[in-house]
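pasting for ref
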Amino acid sequence: MLLPPFRGADLKAYDRAGADITADLFAPSGFLKVDADYTPKQRDQWRAEDWPETYQSPRYASVFGIGIGIAFAPPHAISTPRTSPNGTVIAPAPPRTGMPSAVMGAACIASAGAGIRTGTAAAMTMHPVVPDYARFPVHGRSVKDTSGEIGLAAHWVKHLLHFVFIYKAKARPGWAFLPE
């Protein structure tokens, strides 16, 4: 799935003296710089350890990337950047899921068609999201915990998740006991 690049909110930050510190806090993408290694590196030098651990601003100890998977600036792409025939750079990025996507796995269900008997959806899991060739030398990810399927079963799971989401959003009885 190709999406336009994500951007953070266009926030301005100022210190107590009124000096603009926006560039110190935020990457050009608008996402908060956190405890990641933002040193420019060649693709073969990227490591899983480059990714944040606490999501804390290195400059301001009381500032954290709220929402974790949504607010922080990734230090680099998660796989080899490519270029389209017309020269557009395609750089895969971590999912913006609201969970600590740099250190956890990801689970996603994407609808691919509607219909009670003919609907399809793609269901996929990935662990870890950021390839870690030190732990998983061959693929960078756990083959056991990374999978993908497309079909009617995934469509029904996506359909049920929709209703669970709406139920929780309306704070219906017992909503807090439903898993995320």
